[in-house]
């Protein structure tokens, strides 16, 4: 582990008061090329905090030291950081995937933020209310959302038109979804019409590996996977069976291919983006900027894109129900034993400023955390972000439980079994419960 002094906040030694007290705050961050401004914005924020401290007449000045972790992913990084805290060597602040926050809370390593957040509404008061759920444990809030994502059903309007759906029907799909009128079963019906009435081979495609996206299906059927009172994993057999039943029906109707989980990523994208060979693609907004536009040539112009393409949130399970999306915020957190909790909170408040967060959002295709970012010309110009921000109103999260990654692996295995015909929906629900009870700790079953 190397320690890199990224920035000395303050101008120069000559500009620093003679009696200034330097306060070094150490920030733990993964070496993540996909999000360099996560720590970078904290470094920039120190300049703003120091100017504020000077105006207040304080003799304190903040120095930010970034401690870099070479961990390949957030799970590995979280486990490494827990070990570091365990030997008393933890940093003052850290950046982490939100689902790990309660692991740090359970071990007493992270600062409870509720009172601080209320004290500084100028920094935290306008963050989207839904995003705060990502930083909560049963007894309070322990993290600040740093960014967000949106996951959805993309769809090919050309194929829907070819299948006989008129423009009025097609253009009403997003609004019908948000109102609860469009349902999951209707998505299967639309996809089946495309397969039956056009040359397209696939109705719906999803990721071919373990990950978050397909969990939207389970959530729309009421599977939240965590008990809000205890934070323990929660499995509800009937709700699991209903979600697996949707996949079972989609495969039986020839909509989802039985071999979806053995397909290659590039092949799936090509079928949807380039070959006009799939009606729907369940994935995330970042895929437009990272793959659809540069690799597969979809139009980057907003009007041209929406002429032939579109997206909807995850529809309700039943008519009149609530739609949903899924986001996976990365969060800022503060160590429980930091010597300067107030300064750390203020520092992360400045790091959450509209302009700095927008710098990160537009360069990494992540959603912002505040509605004011919609007024930033740069954010507005990145129209996929601006348009997808509305999904934060209905978004959900992975459980803040460190065992959920293992549970997700069990769910994915069961989903493979359903799609390949080895398991019925009922058998898949039983499989998940049996495996979870045998391999995981403190699993509640209803």
Offer a few descriptive terms.
446 residues; alpha/beta; D-Maltodextrin-Binding Protein, domain 2; 6-stranded mixed β-sheet; 19 helices; 16 strands; disordered N terminus; Inositol-phosphate transport system substrate-binding protein; signal; Bact_solute-bd_prot1; periplasm; SBP
Walk me through what this model shows.
Its main location: periplasm. InterPro entries: Bact_solute-bd_prot1 (IPR050490), SBP (IPR006059). Keywords: Periplasm, Signal. It holds the Pfam family SBP_bac_1. The structure is a single chain. The chain has about 450 residues and is of the alpha/beta class. The chain folds into 2 domains: about 1-145 and about 330-365, 3-Layer(aba) Sandwich (D-Maltodextrin-Binding Protein, domain 2), CATH 3.40.190; about 150-325 and about 400-445, Periplasmic binding protein-like II (D-Maltodextrin-Binding Protein, domain 2), CATH 3.40.190.10. It has 19 helices and 16 strands. Strand 2, helix 1 (about 35-55) and strand 3 form a beta-alpha-beta unit. The longest helix has 19 residues, at about 35-55.
């Amino acid at each position: 582990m190397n320690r890199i002094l990224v920035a000395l906040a303050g101008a120069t030694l000559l500009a620093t008061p003679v009696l200034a007290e330097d306060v070094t705050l150490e920030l733990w961050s993964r070496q993540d090329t996909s999000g360099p401004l996560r720590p970078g914005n904290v470094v920039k924020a120190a300049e703003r905090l120091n100017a504020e401290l000077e105006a207040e007449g304080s003799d304190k000045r903040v120095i930010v030291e970034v401690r870099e972790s070479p961990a390949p992913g957030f799970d590995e990084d979280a486990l490494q950081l827990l070990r570091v805290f365990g030997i008393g060597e933890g940093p003052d602040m850290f950046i982490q995937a939100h689902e790990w926050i309660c692991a740090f809370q359970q071990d007493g390593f992270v600062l409870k933020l509720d009172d601080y957040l209320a004290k500084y509404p100028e920094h935290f008061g306008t963050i989207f209310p839904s995003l705060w759920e990502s930083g909560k444990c049963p007894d309070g809030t322990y993290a600040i959302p740093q960014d967000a994502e949106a996951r959805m059903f993309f769809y090919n309007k050309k194929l829907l038109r070819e299948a006989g759906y008129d423009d009025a029907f097609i253009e009403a799909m997003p609004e019908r979804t948000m109102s609860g009128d469009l349902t999951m079963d209707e998505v299967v019906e639309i996809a089946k019409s495309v397969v039956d009435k056009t040359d397209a081979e696939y109705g719906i495609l999803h990721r071919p590996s373990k990950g978050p996206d397909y969990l939207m299906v389970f959530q729309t059927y009421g599977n939240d996977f965590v008990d809000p009172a205890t934070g323990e994993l929660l499995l509800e057999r009937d709700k699991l069976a209903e979600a697996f039943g949707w996949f079972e029906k989609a495969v039986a109707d020839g909509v989802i291919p039985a071999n979806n989980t053995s397909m290659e990523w590039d092949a799936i994208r090509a079928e949807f983006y380039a070959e006009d060979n799939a009606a729907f693609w369940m994935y995330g907004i970042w895929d437009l900027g990272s793959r659809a536009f540069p690799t597969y040539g979809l139009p980057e112009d907003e009007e041209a894109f929406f002429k032939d393409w579109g997206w909807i949130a995850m529809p309700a399970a039943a008519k009149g129900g609530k739609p949903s999306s899924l986001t996976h915020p990365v969060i800022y957190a503060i160590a429980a034993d930091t010597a300067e909790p107030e300064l750390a909170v203020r520092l992360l408040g400045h790091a959450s400023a509209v302009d700095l967060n927008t710098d990160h959002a537009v360069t990494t295709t992540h959603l912002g955390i505040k509605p004011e970012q919609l007024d930033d010309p740069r954010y507005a110009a990145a129209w996929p972000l601006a348009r997808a921000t509305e999904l934060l109103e209905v978004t959900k999260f992975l459980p803040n439980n460190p065992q959920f990654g293992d549970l997700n692996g069990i769910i994915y295995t069961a989903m493979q079994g359903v799609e390949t015909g080895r398991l019925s929906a009922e058998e898949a629900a039983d499989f998940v419960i049996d495996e979870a009870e045998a391999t995981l700790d403190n699993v509640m079953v209803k």
